[in-house]
Amino acid sequence: MRPKIVKFCGITRPADAQMCVNLGADALGFIFHPQSPRNLSVPEFQNLVEKIDFQNCAKVGVAVEPDLPLIKSLLGAGIEKFQFHFASEIPIAKIVEWSDLVGRENLWLAPRLKPEEDLPDGLLGCADVFLVDTYAKDVYGGTGQQSDWGKFTGFKNQYGKHQWILAGGLGPDNLRSAISSTLPDGIDLNSGVEFLPGKKDADKIKEVFSILS
After folding, report:
1. Does the pLDDT of residue 141 top 60, yes or no?
2. 3-state SS record for 57-77
3. Letter string b/e over residues 29-53, b meaning 16 or more CB atoms within 10 A of that residue's CB
């Protein structure tokens, strides 16, 4: 039942992070995107992580079409995995640049794809992990709406040598159905386990781990 990767994203409070780690989270996501209500600056992130015992839990930096100075800052701050959201029209050369800088084994690509769109040419060679979130015209993730599980399953079946993380409105109410329907390599939970943006609901997180056990 439990996917290989269980990630909680949009972490802003040390107590929320520590609870997730103690219950068995594999990764925690920290958002570096000014338009997000869960945005952190790099100094805020550094102050936050000093208060967390990560044990074996990975630190994931989440950004939208980041420039090289931001990526280098995240590397210097101790980020281990890099989840980058981007428009499907972005030049492949930019994604190759990301991959070369952080390593394809550490890069999680999250292209914003319209319902009818396939993966852009060249992406599969840039990263080992892909994340599928809900499509919205002007928003990169964080919608709280369920993603296209059929599209996700199609990608996972077609490109099975890569790891596929399901995102988009996941929470205790739909987690069992999501996992049984898509058999994801990973799940990414955010708004579905919050009572306010950036503030996690302890009861919902405990329920998630009860479902996964």
Report:
1. no
2. CEEEEEEECCCHHHHHHHHHC
3. bbbbbeebebbbebeebeebbeebe
Return the pLDDT at 118. Answer: 83
Average pLDDT, the chain: 93
What's the confidence (pLDDT) of residue 135?
46
Contact criterion met (CB below 8 Å) for 63 and 35: no
Among 142, 128, 168, which residue's Cα sits nearest to residue 63? Answer: 142
pTM (2 decimals)?
0.93
170: Cα within 13 Å, side-chain hemisphere: 34
Domain 5-212 annotated CATH 3.20.20.70: yes
Question: How many angstroms separate the CA atoms of 6 and 128, rounded?
Answer: 17
Give, in order, the Cα–Cα distances in Å from 113 to each of 41, 58, 76, 120. 27, 26, 31, 9
Residue given tokens 């209500």 in the structure block:
37
Distance in angstroms (rounded) separating the CA atoms of residues 129 and 111: 12
SS3 51: coil
The answer for residues whose C-beta is within 8 angstroms of residue 173's C-beta and 6 or more apart is: 192
Q: Which residue has the tokens 């840039």?
A: 126
Is residue 6 within 8 A of residue 24, CB to CB? The reply is: yes
Distance of CA 98 to the CA centre of its chain: 16
**106 vs 147, higher pLDDT:** 106
